[in-house]
């Protein structure tokens, strides 16, 4: 099971999730506001569900924020897969930029 859990109220997040699903046919997308998404996350040990966070669930692993983005791109083919190579950067650094983007995402 490969699932992107995203904020469906955010147009950018919705477009990104649908675009990802069109490029990787094995991906499912579920709104974070959906009861099924909340159940999946709680079953994986996520107790606080943040609406400004993208989650990527792949079997028993859950990635959040920038690491979720990198893991999603790891399932793409070239040239988009190259974005996943930036996962070597420190999480505090990539999450800092993720949070800035998330704060202003409704403007994009």
Structural commentary:
- It holds the Pfam family DCC1-like.
- It is a single chain.
- The chain is an alpha+beta fold.
- The protein has a single domain, classed as 3-Layer(aba) Sandwich (Glutaredoxin), CATH 3.40.30.
- Helix content is 41%, strand content 17%.
- The protein is built from four helices and four strands; from the N terminus they run E-H-E-H-E-E-H-H.
- A four-stranded mixed beta sheet has the order 2-1-3-4, with helices on both faces.
- The radius of gyration is 13 Å and the shape is globular.
- The mean pLDDT is 93.
CATH topology call? Glutaredoxin
For the record, give the distance between the C-alpha atoms at the N and C termini, rounded to a whole number: 30 Å
Uncertain segments are none
Q: Which class best fits the helix and strand makeup?
A: alpha+beta
Our Rg estimate from Cα atoms comes to 13 Å
Q: Determine the number of helices (DSSP H or I, runs of at least 4 residues).
A: 4
The total of beta strands comes to: 4
Mean pLDDT: 93
Order of strands, main sheet, comes to 2-1-3-4
- Which percent band covers the strand fraction? 15-25%
Identify the CATH class: Alpha Beta
- Net shape: globular
Helix content: 40-55%
Protein topology:
Elements: E1 2-6, H1 11-23, E2 27-31, H2 35-43, E3 55-58, E4 61-64, H3 65-73, H4 91-103
Parallel strand pairs: 1-2
Antiparallel strand pairs: 1-3, 3-4
Summary of the model, kept short:
With 108 residues, this protein is an alpha+beta fold.
What are the key terms here?
four-stranded mixed sheet, 17% strand, alpha+beta, Glutaredoxin, globular, 4 strands, 108 residues
